[in-house]
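On clarity, I found the account of how folds are encoded harder to follow than it need be. What matters is that the chain and its backbone geometry are given together, residue for residue. The format is easy to grasp once an entry is in front of the reader. For illustration, here is how one protein appears when written out as sequence plus structure tokens.
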Amino acid sequence: MPRSVNNVASRARRKRILKLAKGFFGRKKNVWTVAKNAVEKGLGYAYRDRKQKKREFRAVWIARINAGARLHGLSYSELMGKLKKSNIDLNRKVLADLAMNHPAAFEAVVKKVK
């Protein structure tokens, strides 16, 4: 019995990987084995960095809140402690936006907790 080769599926699999490798430099974009390794590594980084992005944004928000709080004579930790005590449930993303784009609103929040 002749050997059956599913060329359609294997071609589709290679095309899918090479499509993901579009924009890579040199052989990474058009040589199957090199492209496959580069795409796998890239997808791994993408998965990892979707998590890291969240951590990095939290650090940015904290820095912005701290800068805004210090303008009003408080440190970041003092402000967050007082917010918690006075049952004001604003997350860091919102507080950072207020501190940066709406200083009057941020000042009102700070005065409320002082």
In short: The mean pLDDT is 95. The chain is about 75% helix and 0% strand. The two ends are 86 Å apart (CA to CA). Residues 32-71 form the longest helix (40 residues).
